[in-house]
Write a structure and sequence with these properties.
- There is one protein chain.
- Helices cover 5% and strands 48% of the residues.
- It is built from four helices and 29 strands.
- It has helices at residues 130-134, 291-294, 381-385, 406-412; strands at residues 26-27, 34-38, 40-42, 45-52, 55-61, 68-70, 85-89, 98-110, 113-123, 140-142, 151-155, 160-164, 178-181, 183-185, 188-196, 202-209, 217-219, 234-241, 244-258, 261-271, 287-289, 297-302, 307-312, 328-349, 355-376, 392-396, 399-400, 420-427, 430-437.
- A hairpin with a 2-residue loop joins β26 and β27 (399-400).
- It is globular.
- The chain starts with 25 loop residues before the first strand and ends in a 5-residue tail after the last strand.
């Protein structure tokens, strides 16, 4: 699956006074020197299963966040958190601070990794639903504190995280690997990268390494004299942060250089100033290196040794950078009842002992996922065709949307320009047909 340009923005800045004491993550007793944790790659991002106080939850792995955050309040009925204190959180987006609770002393376990005294935050306002954005159940985000006590290998091709005891870990000889120093600010990792704009000017930028951001690269306009929005750009919805929607510009970079690794024609986003008021605590920061770039490498994150090691991931390195040409951003719209054709094969005995197979067709109702248009870009092909926010997508080019994964739907909107898209949608119970052509914006 080609990478979608859909961004799930999980770049939280937790600006509040109280900070809980945090226990350490360690390998479970009996483990020698490593633990392997499988993950599911969704929109370039890693989703793992872990237990908190015995309750299994799904977490997005996000190095751009310090602490563990829960935000699907539906799990609170069966998840007993310890030592709760109320507070306010503030993050990316155009909204206000939101209500949350802090909790410490919780038991975390995940495939050979434990933390007997995990501190976390749970958002109690029902405003942020990452499950709807990603199309699968996501109960929270586990932050960089999971990486602090290990050397961590990230293999995006095999979808595995391997956690090593740093006291026994030894780097293998690798001629095609390159290591780079990590800077830390607020316990979050930063990497110096060189970017070349469309005018051909190369300059160094300091980027937060954010495995929980599905985009490739964010640059903050005018955080450096060389960073500005190029003339060829378009306005777009970039994602949703803790404090609301994030808007900005999208464009292309001529080149990204990390050591000797060269990445060409990469997507870049320039968030607007309203969404980024809380972003500049680190005055040296120029932007974010997201999962759209990270997944192109085999990555070793070594927080204790303060370095990152990269090797080309041949499966993803040369993938083209796609972006949404329809103007539609979708979310999971809940389950819907659909009429489904079912087939049953019934072998019977015919004349002269001949075997005959009867194929019996029947119809039944079953629950399937639905996808809703959450945001539509003004002036985009979908907007000009007459589609509206809130429309439920039933079919795309003759295929039932409920039989597709969210990534497949997003990929159809990111195909080459001039691709014709035919859609059947449900609008307040009325079925309507629309047609438009994908248009290149860059």
């Amino acid at each position: 699956m080609k990478a979608s340009n859909v961004l799930i923005s999980c770049l939280f800045l937790l600006a509040f006074a109280p900070v809980c004491a945090q226990g350490s993550f360690v390998l479970s007793p009996g483990r020698q020197d490593k633990a392997v944790v499988p993950f599911k790659l969704v929109n370039n991002m890693m989703v793992i299963k872990a237990k908190v106080n015995g309750k299994e939850l799904s977490f997005l792995v996000d190095t751009g966040v310090k602490k563990t955050v829960l935000f699907n309040v539906q799990v609170s009925d069966s998840l007993l958190l310890k030592n709760i204190e109320t507070l306010k959180l503030r993050g990316l987006g155009e909204g206000n601070s939101i209500n949350a609770v802090s909790s410490n002393g919780n038991l975390f376990s995940c495939n050979g990794i434990i933390n007997p005294s995990l501190s976390l935050f749970m958002i109690t306002d029902n405003l942020f639903d990452l499950s709807a954005k990603m199309g699968i159940d996501i109960h929270g985000i586990i932050g960089g504190d999971l990486f602090e006590d290990f050397v961590v290998k990230i293999n995006y091709a095999s979808e595995k995280l391997t956690f090593y005891d740093p006291s026994t870990y030894k780097y293998s000889k690798c001629k095609t690997c390159e290591s780079f120093p990590l800077d830390f600010y607020g316990s979050k990792p930063y990497l110096d990268v060189y970017v070349t704009n469309q005018a051909g000017t190369e300059h160094k930028v300091k980027l937060l390494i954010d495995s929980g951001g599905g985009d490739s690269l964010w640059l903050f306009p005018y955080s450096d004299p060389n960073i500005y929005v190029p003339e060829k750009n378009f306005d777009d919805y970039l994602g949703k942060g803790l404090s609301g929607d994030i808007y900005g510009k999208r464009a292309k970079l001529r080149e990204i250089r990390i050591g000797s690794f060269l990445i060409f024609d990469a997507n870049v986003s320039y968030p607007d100033s309203t969404s980024m008021l809380t972003m500049h605590q680190n005055k040296e920061r120029n932007g974010t290196l997201g999962a759209g770039i990270l997944k192109r490498f085999h990555v070793i994150m070594d927080y204790p040794g303060r370095r990152i090691t990269l090797k080309k991931n041949n499966r993803f390195f040369n993938e083209p950078f796609l972006y949404n040409k329809s103007g539609i951003e979708i979310v999971y719209g809940g389950e819907m009842l659909v009429k489904e054709k079912r087939t049953r094969i019934n072998p019977v005995e015919g004349e002269n002992n001949q075997s005959i197979t009867d194929i019996i067709y029947s119809y039944g109702l079953t629950y399937k996922p639905s996808y809703k248009i959450a945001v539509i870009r003004h002036g985009s092909p979908a907007h000009l065709a007459g589609l509206r926010e809130g429309d439920i997508i039933l079919e795309i080019n003759g295929r039932e949307a409920y039989n597709m994964k969210m990534e497949e739907v997003n990929h159809m909107f990111s195909q080459k320009a001039d691709k014709r898209i035919r859609m059947l949608v449900d609008r307040n119970g009325e079925h309507l047909n629309y047609e438009f052509v994908l248009r290149s914006m860059l």
